Amino acid sequence: MPPKKNKTKKTTKKNPEKSENELEAKYRRSVLDIAVLQDRIALQCESVIKVQSDRVDLRRRVRDMEQKLQHTRQDHRDVNSDLSRQYKTMQTELTSKVKRLETEASQLKEELGLCQEELRREKREREQVEREKDATISDLQHKLDNMETDCEKVLHETLDSLTVQLSLARRGWEDKSTTIHQNYKEVLSEFGLNALDI
């Protein structure tokens, strides 16, 4: 009987370990996903900062060019018109790029929030599995203790029974031994011998 109990105990241990391994794998994947998202956000933030810095530099350059153009406006009207057009185009492109990067950063923040929520949910599930596993182990330990008590009880009853049987057998042997000794004494006395002398 005990080997069967051990087998069921092993199989009940394998299933929680398997689910625990799956939860740990999910947890690791979630942690990696969060790290990747954080890296992407950091890169996007650096890009936004660089774009804003470029924008400030471009505005300064444009101001410098406008000052130069004021002195040479008469001679360089075409250049001034072209630079103005380029400035507006670049400003439009930079504005749209900044908006696009801000939208991307917002989406990444949302994804990060979803990943964090999923991570919290998986942690709760893992804690639930841990509680169930502990309850199962406790239940099995209780059953094992009960079996141990029952086995001890059966063993004590068996030993008590054997003690009684041995006691009865001993009395029987002692009675037989006394009868045999008495017979030998009588036989010896018939031959005129004393049993104590022998």
Automatic annotation (TrEMBL):
Principal cellular location given in the protein's record: cytoplasm
Biased composition range(s): Basic and acidic residues: 14-25
Keyword Coiled coil attributed: yes
Region (Disordered): 1-25
InterPro entries hit by this protein: DRC12-like
Extent of Basic residues compositional bias: 1-13
Source organism superkingdom: Eukaryota
Record key words, sorted: Cell projection, Cilium, Coiled coil, Cytoplasm, Cytoskeleton, Flagellum
Coiled-coil residue spans: 48-157
Location within or outside the cell: Cytoplasm, Cytoskeleton, Flagellum axoneme
Family per record: Belongs to the DRC12 family.
Function (record text): Component of the nexin-dynein regulatory complex (N-DRC), a key regulator of ciliary/flagellar motility which maintains the alignment and integrity of the distal axoneme and regulates microtubule sliding in motile axonemes.
Subunit organization: Component of the nexin-dynein regulatory complex (N-DRC).
Protein name: Dynein regulatory complex protein 12
